[in-house]
Every structure is written in structure tokens, then in C-alpha cells.
Amino acid sequence: MTLNVRIGGALGDFVATNVGDHGVYENVSEYVRDLIRRDKERTEAERFDRLKAELTRAFAVPQSSYALLDADTVIARNQRA
Question: Structural domain boundaries of the chain?
Fold first, then answer.
């Protein structure tokens, strides 16, 4: 995929300080790829945290609140829905 993005003003200045001889990145493409990777990692971490919170709540429920079901009961219940 190829992206063309126009950045000016304060954002352009900010990008310029992070790219080149005095910046962390050699070029703007490298900088954008790193930003996308970090955003992807953040999104995945948020999803994992939500899943972990749901599982924590589920496992905190007393064992006595669970009902033993066989496969036929589950299948029948799902067919009615």
C-alpha cells in the first residue's frame, strides 16, 4: 500500500524534528511505519485488557451459579434463538 499524506504547520515541524540527521528516524516513511506499529500494539493491548477483565469477572462468579449442560441441551437452546 502506498500512502500520500500532506502535513504542514506545527505537525510538519514536529515530524521534521524526528526525521533526518538530528531525529530518531532516517525518513518519514520509517517514522509513519513505527507510528502505525505502535498504534496496532496499543489497540491489541486494549483488546487483551478488555478480554482479561471479562474473564476475571467470569471467574469471580461462584461455582454454584454455573449449571451443568450437555451438548444436546446447548444445541437445542441455540436452535431456538
Answer: 26-80
